[in-house]
Amino acid sequence: MSDCIFCKIVDGKIPSAKVYEDDEILAFKDISPARPVHVLVIPKRHITSLATVTPEDAPFLGRMLTVANQIATEQGSPDGFRVIINTGRVGQQEVPHLHIHIVGGPDPVGPMLKRI
Ligand code: 5GP
Ligand code: ZN
């Protein structure tokens, strides 16, 4: 997708602080970190959101989570972390290229959502 920010990061047209890369997955530091550890894990191929994945994507999505665990530990969150996948309008996804946020650090990240 030529106008997708994260596809441009994959193509090297926009710089990023990469922390992990393999054939299918790229991970880089969020430009505006919410916690001391804030990394985005993305597929190199354009997938718009979690709402557009199919059953065939299941092994790949599992691998993304495995990589997320590895990165969280390496980046300084060995005692646990949170993964977030904002999806679509209701999930308030800002960048329409699937990404897993890893947030963590030495201290607890805070409450989840305010309860209704
Ligand atoms: P979303 O709201 O879509 O789940 O999260 C998008 C995330 O991408 C935000 O946390 C934002 O800070 C991050 N982001 C947006 N543009 C860039 C960029 O050009 N580089 C990096 N490293 N992060 C970005
Ligand atoms: Zn994209």
Q: What is the 3D shape?
A: globular
Q: What structural class is derived from the secondary structure elements?
A: alpha+beta
CATH homology superfamily name: HIT-like
**End-to-end separation:** 38 Å
> Count the helices. How many?
2
**In percent, how much strand structure appears in the residues?**
15-25%
Helix content: 10-25%
**Which stretches are poorly predicted, pLDDT < 50 over at least 5 residues?**
none
CATH class: Alpha Beta
The name CATH uses for the topology is: HIT family, subunit A
Mean pLDDT, rounded to whole units?
Answer: 97
Structural Rg: 14 Å
Question: Can you give a write-up of this model?
Answer:
The chain is globular. With 116 residues, it is of the alpha+beta class. Strand 1 and strand 2 (25-29) form a beta hairpin. The chain has one domain: HIT-like (HIT family, subunit A, 2-Layer Sandwich), CATH 3.30.428. A five-stranded antiparallel beta sheet has the order 1-2-3-5-4, covered by helices on one side. It is built from two helices and five strands; from the N terminus they run H-E-E-E-H-E-E. The chain has helices at 5-10, 58-74; strands at 18-21, 25-29, 37-43, 81-84, 100-104. 20% of the residues lie in helices and 22% in strands. It binds guanosine-5'-monophosphate (5GP) and zinc ion. Zinc ion binds next to helix 1.
